[in-house]
Design brief:
Chain A is mostly helical. Chain A is built from five helices and no strands. Chain B is an all-alpha fold. In chain B, helix 1 runs antiparallel to helix 2, helix 6 packs parallel to helix 8 and helix 7 runs antiparallel to helix 8.
């Protein structure tokens, strides 16, 4: 049974992989493929963000009593990612390669620094504080595979 | 099963409040290319006799302008930012620390270069004092915060970037000590016998220890992060930096224990081989990256890797197999390939990623307070236009080719000086433009908050 750290980190990598495929398709101006890959990425990303916001963060907040700390920062960064995804959706509809690649590089940076904070600190902290790690891990797995 | 819950400590507060003000790394980045511009002017005014030997004082001035002035400045500045981002460790009072350390480092480097150039011992003495103070302060403060973090950190996660940064800083400490010992001769103390072996030890600890280890540390983190590349193999991250460090220590044994002196050459071969092992894994990692879009930084990694491999080949080829024209200039050629071909290439490639990353991350953190301010955020390509990065790469490659030719045929020095001037003026402009863009957008965000 994989832990929260392992499972959620592997989901980050999956998101990165699909993201890269969508970005490559845009770079080649293969708009049909780009649309399919981009849709797959945004679905996967949204499931991941929701899994954290509805399962992981509340559990963390309950176990540590920290409601205005790390999880609040993570939630705000999720909103920033969603705003960038919206811009990218628009670029894709407009077939605007230059704007898409500028925004995708930006989303990449935002996601990576966000992931690093989660993987190095938030996930390990959550595992240290939760009494029911396996249960939460299963719930996250179920949510992420619910599409 | 009852678990003992560790306390939630301030080091794992997960906010980016640990980021130093943006002017902390930028003061180092802005001053660094000015040293390379000074090199261009020196090459132009000294003329073609510069390229006779690496032991000329003018050549020492140029080498230190590059290693201390350009390379070390970028690395010292980047570390202020890298530690909070990669390991959650922030340096207390960063503006004060950077202000003092940067001033001591910059003024010390300028005096040392002038001291070598004018063969002025007084200037060299003043430089030694300022550099010693600057490095001691920098290393003590970084050492203190790294040690403090070690005591607090209860995570089972092993951060190989951090462990390699620690080795690099230790190597910097030894490089500086050796450099200062070498300089004691200018005050007539001569604490050590001033010979080529000691100068080589100083250069090897600096280049193969401090610089190469820091490149390893950063690439372990940034390749998977920015290029969606696979992680380096665990054994590379865990053991390679330690073996490099152990080999560097063994060089001391070869120097001081007469019966082990025969090992000296083999240890240098080993160091280059270890660097090549790293670079081959780097190329493999880069080849398997998922993000395949055109990127100047990837070109820089490849250029740097090629230069390191050529440098190693040139080092191991038996001398009798080399043409006389190359053999006569072998030490300078090796230094050029390693310093300008490998290290400077990789540093410039990293800068092209770090500059927009820094500007964006600092602005993005300000928007956390007010979500609507996000509309004022520039995207990564607004901060550093891709084409501008490509021009930088082209300029660097042209300079490198002409530099290699000039080592063999010094009469081309004027062309080299012109290209160096163009390359580093362009780099200066890119850095200043990124910083100005930060200030402009920062003001916009302030108005929206």
């Amino acid at each position: 049974m994989s832990t929260i750290v392992e499972f959620m980190t592997s989901k980050h990598r999956e998101c990165d992989d699909i993201f890269s495929e969508a970005e490559s398709a845009v770079a080649k101006e293969n708009w049909d493929e780009a649309t399919i890959k981009w849709q797959a990425f945004t679905d996967e990303l949204e499931l991941h963000l929701q899994a954290e916001e509805t399962i992981l963060f509340p559990q963390f907040e309950q176990a540590t009593g920290m409601t205005a700390g790390p999880t609040q920062v993570m939630r705000m960064e999720h909103e920033q990612m969603r705003a960038l995804v919206n811009d990218l959706n628009k670029d894709l509809i407009d077939n605007n390669k230059i704007s898409f690649l500028g925004n995708s590089e930006t989303l990449m940076v935002l996601m990576q620094q966000h992931n690093m904070k989660e993987e190095m600190m938030l996930y390990p902290m959550t595992e240290q504080h939760l009494p029911n790690v396996t249960e939460v891990s299963n719930a996250l797995r179920q949510h992420c595979h619910s599409s | 099963m009852g678990k003992i819950k560790p306390p939630v400590t301030s080091t794992n507060q997960l906010s980016f409040t640990g980021l130093p003000p943006i002017d902390v790394p930028f003061r180092y980045f802005i001053s660094a290319p000015l040293f390379a511009i000074a090199v261009a002017l020196m090459i132009f005014f000294i003329g073609d006799h510069l390229w006779i030997s690496r032991w000329q004082s003018e050549m020492l001035a140029i080498t230190h302008a590059f290693t201390l002035g350009f390379i070390a400045s970028i690395m010292l500045g980047a570390l202020f930012q890298l530690l909070p981002v990669t390991a959650g460790i922030s340096i207390g009072k960063p503006r004060l620390v950077a202000g003092i350390c940067h001033s001591l480092h910059t003024v010390g480097s300028v005096l040392l270069i002038l001291g070598f150039l004018l063969n002025d011992h007084l200037l060299q003495r003043m430089a030694a004092v300022l550099l010693a103070l600057g490095f001691t302060l920098y290393l003590s403060i970084f050492g203190y915060f790294l040690f403090k973090n070690k005591l607090k950190n209860n995570s089972s996660y092993t951060n190989y970037t951090l462990s390699t940064i620690k080795l690099a800083l230790l190597a910097l400490f030894i490089t500086v000590c050796l450099g200062l010992l070498l300089q004691t001769r200018v005050i007539g103390l001569s604490l050590i016998v001033w010979d080529k072996d000691f100068t080589n030890l100083h250069a090897t600890w600096g280049l193969n220890g401090w610089v190469a280890l820091l490149i390893m540390a950063i690439s372990f983190q940034v390749l998977p992060m920015f290029h969606v590349a696979p992680e380096f193999p665990l054994w590379v991250k865990r053991y390679l930096p330690r073996i490099v460090f152990a080999t560097l220590i063994a060089l001391f044994a070869a120097k001081f224990i007469t019966t082990l002196y025969f090992l000296n050459d083999y240890l240098h071969y080993l160091l280059l081989t270890l660097n090549c092992v790293f670079i081959i894994y780097l190329l493999k990692t880069l080849h398997n990256r998922k993000r395949k879009i055109t990127d100047s930084t990837v070109n820089y990694w490849r250029l740097g890797a090629t230069n390191l491999i050529v440098c190693s080949l040139l080092f191991i080829i038996p001398e009798q197999m080399l043409p006389l024209v190359i053999l006569q200039k072998l030490p300078i050629l090796l230094a050029v390939l390693f310093i300008f071909g490998y290290v400077v290439s990789i540093l410039q490639g990293m800068l092209l990623k770090i500059l927009p990353f820094l500007v964006f991350t600092h602005l993005q953190q300000r928007c956390m307070v007010n979500f609507s301010a996000m509309q004022a955020l520039p995207n990564m390509h607004d901060i550093l236009i891709k084409r501008h990065g490509q021009i930088q790469f082209l300029l660097h490659t042209s300079t490198l080719i002409i530099l290699l030719i000039t080592v063999l045929f010094p009469q081309l020095y004027w062309l080299l000086a012109s290209l160096l001037l163009a390359e580093f003026t362009w780099l200066s402009l890119l850095i200043i433009k990124a910083y100005m863009l930060y200030r402009q957008h920062n003001n916009k965000i302030s108005q929206l908050l």
